[in-house]
Amino acid sequence: MGDRKPQELLRNHIRRLRFEHGEMTQQELADRVRCTRQTVIALEQDRYLPTLALAFRIARVFGVPIEQVFEYEEPD
Amino acid sequence: MSLTRTNCILSLIFWGVCGAGFFATAFGAGGVSTFAEDRVRHLAGAGFIAVGLLLTPLVQRLVRNRSSHGAVLVDERDERIQAKAMAATLIAIAFLFYGVALGLYEYYHDTGLIPIGWMWILAYGTPIAMNLLAPAFVLLTDIRGWADGR
User: Fold this and answer.
1) How many CA atoms lie within 13 A of B96 on its CB side?
2) Three-state SS at A72
3) What stretches in chain A show pLDDT beneath 70?
């Protein structure tokens, strides 16, 4: 794990899932999960940690388990 | 640009102008020592505050109505940013007031009297400072990602 903070071990696959679901735009995803496009951008850049509710809404939109959207790397 | 950033920039512009107008009124034409007795300058100063209080939310509302199109305009991330920025604003205002109060004490220590006009300036200056610092901190927090949890 080294010097990495716990938050830095969380990644997501939102961008890939968007493209796999009919090349959904960031605004379309934002509208469906009830957030702003800026939040979607921040999520895709791994800059923002969403609330659990938002994370589940995103997974529900893509029709996949939340673990396939967000990936947590176990510390060593 | 997000609605949050747009609102912050609008707030900074309007309150920047209002604040400049108020302080020019308070410190000009005779200075602080004559401000307390000058009713015209009182009204002018209050007018600048009123313009800021009325015009800023009005323009922000107009911008909001034009850009909504049914999309979410303020979400959980914006609320986190605003909460963090407001906490920083309150601390900054406290330090600012502390600095001004101590500065006045030091400057007028020998005379033992502080012109009463300074009380007006502190009273009106506090909401001006808040309406400038709050959007500035929101912008900083948004741009630097201080509320993003990373």
Assistant:
1) 16
2) strand
3) 1-8, 75-76
CA distance B125 to B103: 15
Cα–Cα distances in Å, from B34 out to B27, B39, B103, B107?
Answer: 9, 10, 20, 18
Q: Reduced to 3 states, what is the DSSP secondary structure of residue A69? A: helix
Give the model's pLDDT for residue A4: 46
Looking at residue A5, its pLDDT comes to 53
Q: Using the beta-carbon criterion (under 8 Å), do A42 and B78 form an inter-chain contact?
A: no
Find chain B residues with C-beta within 8 A of A39's C-beta.
75-78
**Taking CB atoms and an 8 Å limit, are B71 and A36 in contact across chains?**
yes
**ipTM surpasses 0.90:** no
Q: Please, are residues A43 and A26 in contact by the beta-carbon 8 Å criterion?
A: no
Sign, CA dihedral A39-A42-A46-A47, equals negative
Enter the pTM of the model.
0.84
